[in-house]
Amino acid sequence: MNKNFRLEIFKKASLCRNFEEQVIINVNNKNIKIPVYVSAGQEFIAAAISTICKKKKIKPLIFPQHRCHSTYLAFGGNIIKLIDELLGRESGCTKGKGGSASIHSKDINMFGHDGLMGSNGPIGVGACFATKNPTVIFLGDAAAEEDYVLGALGWASHKKLPILFIIEDNNFSILTKKSVRRNWNMKDVARAFKLEGYDIKDDPREIEKHSKFFFKKPILLNINTNRIYWHAGGGMDSNKIFDRFENEKKILGIEAIKINEYYKKNIEKLWKLQLEKQ
Ligand SMILES: Cc1ncc(C[n+]2csc(CCOP(=O)(O)OP(=O)(O)O)c2C)c(N)n1
Q1: Distance (Å, rounded) from C-alpha 278 to C-alpha 275?
Q2: Strand pairing of 135-140 and 163-169?
Q3: What does the DSSP 8-state code read for residue 217?
Q4: Residues contacting 56, CB < 8 A, separation 6+
């Protein structure tokens, strides 16, 4: 992968990571009073997919689930409106009514989740079938297990829809690991439905490698990743989890460090300004 492109992806990831770090601070000091689902650790998925879409000049329909701050930010959602949403304000991107789990934004074609795990599978397939617009559906590894997701995969395959199913596979359904829940994987399920299916890491180079046919046919990427914080809120079980963000920063060196310093400083400032408006 060309270094500039990798840095472009890193920029988005840095925006997302620093945003989430501020969310954690503001959950802990009780400025944020609603349940939050932090995407720190998983941000390279949204960062890579959105940068690839931008390069392809595609503005897809986006169907996220609850862990979606990074999806919103990486695809160009307004950061102030997200801060306001988490603070429960009417000026929030979902008018303060969606909270963390149901981020919705007409500006970026992002359709907020309703809370029923996996529902965005059939809803997103339906939207893609009706409009034929390029569509990205993000599902957790647990949400992907819902029966209605399977029916949706079959329809997307049969109709050869321009759709990308991204499984953000952090191994957990709240606290239950995949190995307790099932003996199969989503790549094989996709292939059983005659979809292209791959099981990859959240390494942006691997994601890009599979991007040639994005939106030319239906594809499912099961992307292995890690969430750093608890299912909800800002707790942390271990600091030994592999952190793709820190890994990329180390590899990319001084340029990445500078990018990250920029986002850290400015996002902290934005949060402060918004909080002062209260
Ligand atoms: C149909 C349904 N079943 C159960 C739940 C309760 N629930 C909320 S989040 C969650 C786990 C989701 O895990 P996953 O889809 O892997 O996403 P992650 O939280 O790991 O990002 C569960 C079981 C729900 N909201 N909807």
Answers
A1: 6
A2: parallel
A3: B
A4: 211, 214, 215
Using an 8 Å Cβ cutoff, are 144 and 119 in contact? no
Backbone angles phi, psi at 221, to 5 degrees: -110, 120
Taking the C-alpha atoms of residue 12 and residue 275, their distance in angstroms, rounded to an integer, is 23
Sign of the dihedral defined by the CA atoms of residues 42, 110, 23, 55, in that order: positive
State how far the Cα of 203 lies from the Cα of 210, in Å rounded to an integer. Answer: 11
Q: Which residues line ligand 1 at a C-beta cut-off of 6 Å?
A: 67, 115-117, 140-143, 168, 170, 172-174, 231
- Which of the listed residues 116, 174, 177 should we mutate to test ligand 1's pocket, taking the one with most ligand atoms within 8 A of CB? 174
Probe target for ligand 1 pocket from 117, 147, 177, 225, with the most ligand atoms within 8 Å of CB: 117
Mean pLDDT per 10-residue run, the chain (278 residues)? 95 98 97 97 98 98 98 98 98 97 98 98 98 98 98 98 98 98 98 98 98 98 97 90 97 98 98 93
- How wide is the angle at C-alpha 147 spanned by C-alphas 146 and 149, nearest 5°? 70
Distance between CA atoms of residues 199 and 70, nearest Å: 21
Q: In Å, how far are 45, 52, 207, 269, 270 from 263, measured between CA atoms?
A: 19, 21, 24, 10, 10
Residue pair 43/1 in contact (Cβ under 8 Å)? The answer is no
Q: What's the half-sphere exposure (Cβ side, CA atoms, 13 Å) at 6?
A: 18
pLDDT attached to residue 239: 81
pLDDT of residue 35: 97
Distance (angstroms) between ligand 1 centre and the Cα of 173 equals 6
> Which tens digits make up the pLDDT trace of 222-241?
999 999 999 999 999 888 89
